[in-house]
Amino acid sequence: MTKLQINHRTTYRYSRAVGLLAHRLILSPRTDKQLRTLCFSIDCSVSGSIGWAKDVFGNTIATVAFSEPTSELTISSAAVVEQTADRWPVFNIDISAHAYPFTYSTDDKTDLGAFAAATSPGNRVADWARAFVGSRPTDTLSLLKDINAGILTNVSYRIRDEEGTQSPQQTLELASGSCRDIAALFIEAARCLGFGARAVSGYVYDPQASVDDSGSTHAWAEVYLPGAGWIAFDPTHRRVGEACLIPVAFARSNGQIMPVTGGYTGTPEDFVGLDVSVKVVEIGE
After folding, report:
1. Is the N-terminal amide bond of 137 cis, ω within 30° of 0?
2. Residue 238's CB: how many other CB atoms inside 10 A?
3. Does a structural domain hold residue 90?
4. What is the DSSP letter of 36?
5. Are 172 and 154 in contact (CB under 8 A)?
6. Do 99 and 240 belong together in one domain?
7. 82 CB contacts (<8 Å, ≥6 apart)?
8. Average pLDDT, the chain
9. How many domains does the chain have?
10. Whether residue 194 sits in one domain with residue 65
């Protein structure tokens, strides 16, 4: 078991005092069988009221309505979690899904819905994904691991400050992308092959990094396999399983689960800059 402390701070700066619109925060770690949230808090530098809700995916959403104008807004969250994920997990995949291609049950097909719908099943991404299928039938988990490990052969990771997510085809054409771009490419490739896949946002913890560089926000993917359920695939680091990952939210696409979104009343020139700081450190009992 690993106990981690997560501190996430987002600061917006403006050239003058502006009115703040409601901000949507998705920052609370998502408790599951391998992750338990011990405590969580949000603090804003500008006074306001916070409302809590669950979205259609069951993610915890905080909506902050601010009551006064400001030239600077800082939103800070702090959490302590316990993680028990195995670094070398064994997945109990149902025998019916051991070999690809397989067919999801009628109920699974219905419930997966948009999670299994490829955006452009006939485009370059579909051809690229099919190239990983060496034979039919082939081992299902090995196929997914090959795609997960193979993306960085075609795409280089780069830090990208621009908002939004590149389309999977753009990422292939540019041969580079951020973690959210790489995850989106993996998801689309999986869907093109008939798998149910979803986007996950949260944090990554690197126990071998320095304290000042031990964690960051991160995006990865999960694929649904009968018997095993949702399996985490992190193509940016070529990892499988939830070890080193702290999930906060999942959705059909990355754009639905950005950590902090909001706006202000004013002109584009009023916006000066944005700073994000994340620290994930292991703590004792």
Report:
1. yes
2. 13
3. no
4. E
5. yes
6. yes
7. 1, 2, 3, 4, 35, 36, 38
8. 93
9. 2
10. no
Confidence of residue 216 (pLDDT cuts 50, 70, 90): confident
Q: pLDDT tens digits, residue range 139-193?
A: 999 999 999 999 999 999 988 767 788 999 999 999 999 999 999 999 999 999 9
Which amino acid, residue 277?
S
Task: Measure the CA–CA gap between 84 and 80, rounded to whole angstroms.
Answer: 14
Q: Where are the alpha helices (DSSP H) in the chain?
A: 106-112, 124-130, 140-154, 168-174, 179-192
Residue 157's CB: how many other CB atoms inside 10 A? 16
> Quick one: which of 259, 255, 260, 257 has its CA closest to 119?
255
Report percent pLDDT > 90 for the chain. 87
Same domain membership, residue 268 and residue 216: no
Residues 121 and 246 in one domain: yes
Q: Which residue has the tokens 């000066």?
A: 272
CB-count burial class (<10 Å; 0-12, 13-18, 19+) for 165:
buried
> What's the domain range around 77?
2-84+258-282
**Residue 190 backbone dihedrals phi, psi, to 5 degrees:** -60, -45
The answer to whether residues 210 and 200 touch, using CB atoms and an 8 Å cutoff, is no
